[in-house]
Structure formats: C-alpha cells, structure tokens
Fold each of these.
Amino acid sequence: MKPDNLLPSGIPLRTELYIDGCWRAAEAGRRLCVVNPSTEQKIAEVAAADAADVDCAVQAAALALRSWKNTTGAARAALLRAIARGVEARRAHLAALQSLNNGKPLAEAQTDVGDVIATFDYYADLADSMDQTGPSSVAIPSSDYHAQISREPAGVVALIVPWNFPMVTTAWKLAPALAAGCTVVLKPSEITPLPELELAAILEQAGVPRGVVNVLTGTGTEVGAPLVAHPLVAKVSFTGSTAVGAQVMKTAADTIKGVGLELGGKSAIIVFADADLELAADLVAAGGFFNAGQMCSATSRVLVERPVADELVARLAQRVTQIVVGDPFAAGVQMGPLTNRGQYERVQRFIAQGKAAGARLVIEGSAPAGPGYFVKPTLFVDVPSDSVLWREEIFGPVLCVRSFDTEEEAVRVANDTEFGLVATVVTEDAARGSRVARELEAGVVWINAPQLIFPQTSWGGYKRSSIGRELGPFGLAAFPEIKQILMPNRHTPAAQRIGCP
Ligand code: NAD
C-alpha cells in the first residue's frame, strides 16, 4: 500500500505547527516520525514542538481571547457550522487519513468523521441559544439588591487528546470550548497527529480568527507537560490514560487550574439467561473488537449467566474466527492493526500473562503475520478475577468471560473495578434492565443497544475513569467561568443599603 496514493491530489499533507493562524516549523527545528501501523513504514515527519512553541501558542491564544470572548453566540455558531461543513467537504480525505494513521477500517473512520460533523453542528446550536439566555436574575431574600449570574469564557484552554479516536476526542472538546468563547491550544497524540493537522487546515478555511485555535504536535513530556503547567492556561481538558491523567492533575495543581479528565476503563457487559443470544453475541463482539478493542469504552469483561454461558461462548468463538483482520483500506476488512508498536507489545504481554494466570484461551482468530501491528482477536474464559487480564485495561482485541449465578452477583462483579466508564446489559426483562442499570457504577449504560453515542447526551464515567462530563450541555459547562453581579435596586437609599442608622 502506498500512502501517497491515498491522499487526494491537491490537498497537501499538513506537517507543521499551526500557531497564530500560521503554519510554522518548531522553533528548535525538530521533527517526529509518523508511522503507518499497517506497514510500519514512515508516512511523514511532523514538527516536534517544545516548551518554546508552547509559550508562543499560549501567548497567541491569550491575545486572540480579547476579541473572541466578546463575540456573540450567533457568530460562534456560524463558525462552528462552517467547520462542520468543511469537515463534510473533506469527509473522504479525513476518513482516509484516520485509517492511514490510526489503522482503523475505512468504514469505522467514516463513522468517526460523521461523529465530528454532528458534534460541531450540535454545539453550534447551543452557541446560538446563548444569546437568548444571557445573564440571568437570581431570586434573593432582599428587596434592596438584585443579583445576576452570567457565564463568561474561562480563557485559554489546553486540549490534550489520545490516538484511538483522533478528531472525535478533539471535536468533543474543541466544539464546546469554541462555543463557550474560549481560545484553544490543542495537542494531538504524537502517534496520530495527521487528522488533527488537517482539521486545523479546515478551521483556517472556515475563517476561525488567528490565534483562536493553535495546534501543537509533539510528545507528552515536551508539549503536554509545559502546556498544562503554563500560567496563562486557565483550564485543561485531557483524554488519555489514567496514569497520565493523574500526572496532568498534579501539574495543574501548581497553578490551581481546573481539569476535565476522560481516562481509562475496564467495562462490563452483562448477559442474562433470558437475553436474545444472537443480539448478545453481536453486542459482545462489537464491544470488544470495534477499533481493534482500542476503546476506553471496551466492554472487555463479559459476565454471562451460567445456564447460557456455553452457548454464548460458542457463538462468540464463531464470530472471532470470522473477523477479517487486515489492511484497513481493503474491502471486507473488519479489524485493522493496533495503532502503534508500544500498544502491540503491551497487548501481547497481557495475552501471555492471561495464559500464565490460568485463564482458558478458547480461541484466537487469525491476523496477518506482519509487517504491521496486527493482533489476533482473542477470547478467554474462566478468567481469574484477580488476574491482570480481568483487572487492567488491555486496550486491544481481547475478551474475557466469567459466569455468574445471580443478578446481585453480576452487579457486584461488574462494579468491582477502580474504573466506571460504561456498561452494557442484555436482557429481555425490561424491569431488570432498568434495575441493573441503576445499580451499575458507570457513566453510560446501554441496554440491549450497541455503543451509540449522540452529542446531545453525555460522556464520562465514575471513579477513576473521569472527572467531569463531555458532550451535551455538560460538555459546554466545562468551559465557562460563572460570575455573580450584585447591585442595589434603584429605589433603595444608599444609607439604608450600607446599613447606616
Ligand atoms: P496517554 O495518556 O499516553 O496520552 C494521551 C495524551 O497525553 C497524548 O497526547 C500524550 O502525548 C499526552 N501526554 C503524555 N504525557 C503527558 C504529560 N505528562 N502531560 C500532558 N500530556 C501528556 O494515552 P494514549 O495511550 O494516547 O491513549 C489511550 C488511553 O486513553 C487509554 O487509557 C484510554 O482508555 C484513554 N481514552 C479515554 C477516553 C475517554 O473518553 N474516557 C477516550 C479515549 C481514550
């Protein structure tokens, strides 16, 4: 596969930093290599920023804030819609870039691009409604004074995203940040910077004023850490691993910044004996193998009620053997490679540890031998509940199954994790579905449904999976500051107001 052939002619591959409305090399002139995970070949070299570039980008965002924060909701909405239309116009190119850089099958990449468009359109609608809402009066127990509450942009915000859903995780932060009137320094993953650089080009064409959005490619230590530490950054919105999220929080503490964190997961799917087992097998397979299992929301812990356990495992095994793993651009391919070598090696270690811990390997699917970071979809049963396979986020195409005997046991085992991002319940008993959903410590619960996420709803989890929520009005609420203004009523004499005798 020749990457160059995939880039439609006339649209250059962006490889520089986007700061203050200009494309420029990193100050130190350094570059980093971007690799195609299907071939292990270099796709491009992009600028590798460091603390000096971070400072330039933050200063540009701080300057741009002066006018951007005073724009109307309607003006921001118009820009957000222009971005959505720009993404739409380059749908095919963006999907190809996603598949090339991340390794996901083209159909999945197209779904991601659709999600990005829907997110910008949704926050355009919310931005529009801001002009109507304005400052709101608050009823207070005083006839002398009246109080108003208004929401104002927090300032320059740092948005830091991972490599598993490039552009989607970005859109979930960028659209509400712009709607709220903040200016942005965005740091994509060093592993998948190409889609975000293309998005920057779309923002530029859509007419986003210079400095309002700045995009810095580079590593976590050289860009992410100084960005979080920068004194002019007001808030940080981070999606990534729990370990790095904790580091971000510690760094942000030095300058007392607010943080929004979307971190790891180890989610459960619970299949009751009354479930439609064909549906259950489809939901389990999708929850484990979509995006090659590289999902924070992967439902990689499968809990099945004992009477139907063998039947479900048999259906899963059949699906595992049928998954076509290969070149994400090839017709019929359902699963691509993992996105980078580090993740590939990590997943192989988990599989070896699972075998050593006594988990029963039911079946491994097939995958190309390489080059490329291809991993066979893998199904374990009887996975010990204290094994790393059961307890840690694998972030690869590995499903672990355990049986349960009672509803109470299923809920207890599902909740027995430090994470709490999502869960799925499969049952034909509607009352049980609702009851179990209420008991689960998870920010999102799907009942008999695939992992659909609508921008109008919410995203985020309990425990170590998240701080805050993205999407819906909650995603917007992350970016403004709240201001109270208290004033005397005109009829109240000054002496009375300040309490003079
Ligand atoms: P990661 O934590 O290694 O990196 C995420 C981002 O943080 C990257 O841009 C990286 O360069 C940057 N970074 C690294 N060190 C930093 C530091 N010290 N300061 C600031 N930034 C730093 O995560 P990853 O491997 O890219 O992504 C996989 C993880 O992301 C998984 O744990 C997954 O569950 C999680 N994730 C969560 C969600 C969610 O919505 N909860 C969504 C997608 C991915």
Amino acid sequence: MTKRVPLFINNKLVESDASQAIPVTNPATGEVLSEAPFTTSQEMEKAIADARTAFQTWKNVPVPERSRLMLRYQALLKEHHDELAEILSQETGKVFDDARGDVWRGIEVVEQAANIASQLMGESVENVAPNIDTVSYIQPLGVCAGITPFNFPAMIPLWMFPMAVACGNTFILKPSEQDPHTPIRLAELFREAGAPEGLLQVVHGGKEQVDTLLNHDDIKAVSFVGSVNVGQHVYRTATNNLKRAQCFAGAKNHMVVMPDASKEQVVNNIVGASVGAAGQRCMAISVVILVGEAREWLPDIKEALAAVRPGAWNDTDAAFGPLISPQARERVLSLIQQAKEEGAECLLDGSVCTVDGLPNGNWVGPTLFSGVTPDMTIYKEEVFGPVLCCMEIDNLDEALELVNNSPYGNGTSIFTDSGAVARRYRHEVEVGQVGINVPIPVPLPFFSFTGWKGSFYGDQHAYGKQAVRFYTETKTVTSRWFEGASTKASGPNMTINLK
Ligand code: NAD
C-alpha cells in the first residue's frame, strides 16, 4: 500500500481520514513516493480552530521569545540543510545544488524573522496637542493561511510562516500536493526548535481545501504563490470575503542585451538564468532581447545552451533536473511544437531528450527559438520549461516598449556597460524587480519580493518590511494624563479622580 504524507496538526504527524489522495512522484524516475491526502473538512476545521486557540496565547508571548524561536529554527535548518535538500531533490527532481539553494533562500527569510523586534517598532509623537501624545503599536492579525506552488517547496513556505509567526500570528500552510514532503519536514524542525502546538498547521489537498481556507471566517489573511488563473481566483475570493490577500502569480521575464555589454558575461549568465531549474522559476529569463549588434551573439548563446544537459539530482555534471510531471512536460512540448508552426525558428530543440538509466523521467532539453514575435503563443504564455525565446530589435526604446507591453511584471534585467542606459531602463521599465548586469534579481529578505502587474495581486509583498505590514494591524493610541490624578489614584485605597 502506498504510504500517505501525514498532516501536521498541533505538532503531531496525523494520518488523514481522507478517502481521496493524489500520488506524489519522483519526476526523474516516475516512481510513486507516497500520496498526498485531500484533507477532510473535519480535519480542516480542527486545524483552523486549534490555530485560533493557539493564537490567544502566542500573541502575548514576548517578542524576544518569538525571535529566539526563529534563531533556534535557523540553526536547525542549517544543521539539516543537506537532508532537506535531498528530500526536496527526490520530489522535485532538482539537482542537489539547486535544492540546497531552495532551502538556503528560505533560511535567509528565517534570519530576517529572527530580527523581528526592530521591525515591530511603532511610531510616536509627543505633544500632538498640549500634553497629548500619540503612539502606534503593531499587533498581529490572528490565523493566517499560505498556499504554495511546487517549484520552491522550501523557500516559498519559508517566505510565509516564519514572518507571520514572528509577528505573533498562527499559520495554516497548504503546500503543493506535488511535493509535500519538504514542507512537512520544515514543520517537524519548527516543532524541534520549540514552536508551541498550533502555531503551524500543515494540511494537504487542492482546490477544495484552498477554498475552505478562503471562505473561513477565522482566516484573516491569505498568502498565495502559483499560476495566474489560480492566483486571480484566490485573490478575488479572499478579498470578496473581506480578507487581506497577497497573490504572487505567473511571469514572463525579459533580459535586454545592449551591444556594449560584455559578451562573455551575457553568454555565461543567460544559460543558468533561462534553463536552470528546468526553467521552472518565476524569475527565470524566458525571453532574451538582443539589441542592435548584440544579435550577432546568437550563435554563442546557442553554443552555450547546447553544452548543458539535464540529469539526476546527484549527477554533478547535470545543469538541471526534469519537469515536475508528465503533464507539465506534455504542455511544454506542445508549446514548442506550436512555436514551430507559428514560424519561430527552432535553433535548439529539447523535445526529444533522454537521460541514461532514467527512461521514465520528465526530461526536456535546452531549447532555443529565434525570430520570436509578440503575437506568438510561445511569447504570450508562461512556458515554465527550459525554453529561451530570442527577439532581435534595434534600440532601447523598442526594448522598453516590448517589456512594458507585457502583462507580467515580475523580473527583468539589462546587460550594458552604460550607466545612462541602465539608469533609463531601470527608471522607465514597468517591472517590479530589475537587475543591472544581474540576470535574476531576487531581492534578499531585508527588501521585499516586489513583482508587479499580472505577476502580483495585492498591496504588500512577501518578506521584508512589507511582510510585517501584511501580517499585522497598526493600533494608534492618543493619550492624556491629568496632573494630580496619579497621586490621588495611588496607594492601597485607590480612588480615581475623574475630574
Ligand atoms: P498552481 O497555481 O497550479 O498551484 C499553486 C497552489 O494552488 C497549489 O498549492 C495548488 O494545490 C493550489 N491550487 C491549484 N489549483 C487550484 C484551484 N483551482 N483553486 C485553488 N487552489 C488551487 O501553481 P504551480 O504549478 O504549483 O506553480 C507554478 C506557478 O507558480 C507558475 O505560474 C509560477 O510563475 C508561479 N510562481 C510565481 C511566483 C512569484 O513570486 N510570482 C513564485 C513561484 C511560482
């Protein structure tokens, strides 16, 4: 019998009573690792109710104690870094270095959460009127929920619950049903760090379980990361139910290459940025725009891409792993086919790709198209595979117009040697995260992850100061004390002077 991934409720691993479950497979071998249950409505209710009870105590735990929990958690995550990366590799297919990076970027957010006290400082003004002072306090919301995608099963849960919990909330995590083992291990380590019962609950499932969270009165805020269609549904439902929501969605990221850039740097950087992690990154570069004479570098880009190949998680020569599922692979292959039919020139075709000894993996090799135009499906759709589209244009104005016309706005980069060109691009581009000679500009957690347009629905972004605002309320107190009242009100026979 296939083993079931447990729920994590009140610090215990619990076998779900669910009659339905979905197989969790190793994408490199096709082997079924376990099955993720569709958490029953009773189990969902219990997870939420107990998180609400836990909140009543946790919100009063002194802030330095909350920080210390995060310090212990950070140390444990580092201690278990390789173990977590190995679990993650098995269920995502990521190569080991990539899997370690996934965990590491989550650890960095925990470090930021450990520094919560200074981020929870309110504001104060003395004498807003004669003898009247105003102070603001930052208080938690209650039970918050997080719904996470398959592509970063360590980093993205860690974007969410450490900051929410450090702010004084409790948290329900619904990770991707495609790779739930890593989040469960993260939860176990949180318990080992000393998290009290009910602080973090992990439930599994799909649309029904997500909708339960979105419609539940006790859930105060919802963080979501995933595809555009689901993100829009989550944002609309959560806000319609008067909840706070932040929804990080799909992307299409452009790299603009100016002819004065270093060709060597461009070619070296484009490979990892486009096909690294099999292109299954929301900040992957999926379009390279070669401006003017930079179009002559296309053969070098092709050669560099042709030199890398996918492979098993522990194959140190492999540049990336398989796609997450056979369905994801079929989708990418059909987009490649469509691009050919729509007139893009396929310079490198990864559609037929095998890896020795792993005949059942969801392999797609590096794929490169040139002559791509904005009306082609391969340009309009988020491919989420190791496919790079190349567009050739004449100047920076055209590059800006193209990028700003994209409905997405997660990330972009420009490679140039000119400060003036770089400044203009970063100022005028309508994208939330910009790299200058940096291909994938993911901000560290003391900043926030600031996607724009169709890549993000909401107001406050993930981690950094914006996460603190997202997971808290501000209470503003204006006070006045009357002279003499305290002396009359002190002592064992206290009388209150109401004059
Ligand atoms: P997905 O939308 O299929 O799933 C995300 C989560 O939503 C999962 O937990 C899933 O169980 C749940 N879900 C799926 N269908 C649902 C439905 N109909 N109703 C409610 N919940 C539902 O996304 P995915 O394939 O796991 O992840 C890949 C996507 O995530 C890509 O589009 C990628 O760009 C995006 N992503 C975005 C960011 C960002 O920061 N913008 C980061 C990582 C991934």
